[in-house]
């Protein structure tokens, strides 16, 4: 009787977070040796799967002493789903663990087994374990073509790139390009990476052609492509083409993180095409517009070398002195001081050099004591070879920040603390580096660490300042993206729509931004539009994101989209969006609950008060979370 009752309850209607699993668990507790026990265990597993509770389903399966083939097939599906979700969330270690186990069960469902090979290959790829990824991805592309085949070929090409097997990479990316079912974004990316393969094989003309094709397909994020194509033309000796491409990049992508690099590359093309005066003007522009970047500081060096080559010694000396005076703690200042020392010695003005150096606070110390040097080298060796920081800590305690080796010592200590999750120490060292050596390249990572820690502590304004400092200094697209992501998040938290719109748009214009960060940036741009009263644009941004329910910002976008459509009076589409979301199997319980609340609002707006209240009652009874705002929203609506 109890068995029939449990099965009947299982076959009934579903409610938010409702479940019949407790009945099946109770059955096994009461009747562990029943002839129905095996059937109940299978129902129990299916109940967890119906509830989207894959963790509990896996625990339940693992308690079965002799699982049937059907249970093992369910286990394969559970492990694959958990692995895929961890992969989507960026948690590669648990993703690999689940997917490897699922792959071991691939004989139970060949289709799921094949998709597991692809997901596991992608997980290894994200972990830079290219040798592990390649055979799995090769296995996938050998099978029958699916909608994921272009992705598998692209991932395989990327893995070959990581293994420096460029010819194989070329073949893989060409498979993506030839596939008519591949979407425009992945095809453009394949052309870009094809260009990278040709670049590494020194095939400059083919690389330039591939980058051109990538730009044609997706010009809105073509800063990297234009830059690479221009550099390839320079390698091929076409400096006029290089100059034209770089000018186009500066015109079409004025806020790109690659602008400092583009200006620096432009000076070479200007010199090679017989326009040294234009190169001098470009160096001066770099110095003026990007003074805190390593590219701006290198402009000082190259400007000085050019002046010296022209016999304009006094101007060369002035350039070296300006670099040392403005950025005395930078690596470039160290090079400048060496060159300036030689020039002054050759001119018989070495006393002037010594007087200048003594008058610049924090100027490079070129005559460090031998004992000091040996102490640092021993500390460096212990750190790099044995991952030990004791000698480094002794070194900075002995010499503080006055040694020529203090900066690399503190940088090592900052890196170690950051990598080992010691936020307090990492922040202390980062603050010291940013204060003492603000012009050095190490200050970029220091400001990045400061922004992360300050944001995690809830100090939004301080974090904003650190990220703004990083944005001004960023010498790589990765650092520029990190700075702008931080600025965007603070603007979002503080409700500053103009700042939020600027930051999110600058991120979305970058071709170097990761997929998950792009989703967050697109969601944030939509929020900025909404805050500014441009709901139509907000809806346009949130609509494609709402389909990505496994992603946190995709889930948020779905709820915001449904709410916006309801506010606009489009009740039918609002209901469609909300229903698709609550049935999507999203792992984000809080936003799933918000989705049900929004759905109840839609039902109430359509005059279906009974259905609206029933959803809210079921949600209040079954919601597993503890967030107070969910229950406040439920109670406020039930009280109406």
Q: Any overview of this molecule?
A:
- The two termini are 42 Å apart.
- 76% of the residues lie in helices and 0% in strands.
- The model has no long low-confidence stretch (mean pLDDT 89).
- The protein has 640 residues and is mainly α.
- The chain contains 35 helices and no strands.
- Helix 6 (92-104) runs antiparallel to helix 7 (110-126).
Task: Describe the structure concisely for a colleague.
The chain has helices at 2-10, 21-30, 37-50, 54-62, 69-88, 92-104, 110-126, 130-142, 149-162, 166-178, 184-200, 204-217, 223-235, 239-252, 259-272, 276-289, 294-309, 313-326, 331-347, 350-359, 370-386, 390-399, 406-419, 423-436, 442-456, 460-473, 477-494, 497-508, 515-531, 535-545, 552-567, 571-582, 589-605, 609-622, 628-638. It is mainly α and 640 residues long.
| Percent in strands | under 5%
Rg, Å, rounded: 30 Å
- How many H/I helices? 35
Query: What's the pLDDT, averaged over the residues?
Result: 89
Query: Unreliable segments (pLDDT under 50, ≥5 consecutive)?
Result: none
| SS elements, strand count | 0
Q: Whole-Å distance between the termini?
A: 42 Å
Described by strand count, sense and barrel closure, the largest sheet is: none
Quaternary status: single chain
User: What shape does the CA trace take?
Assistant: elongated
**Could you estimate the helical fraction of the residues in percent?**
over 70%
Structural class: mainly alpha
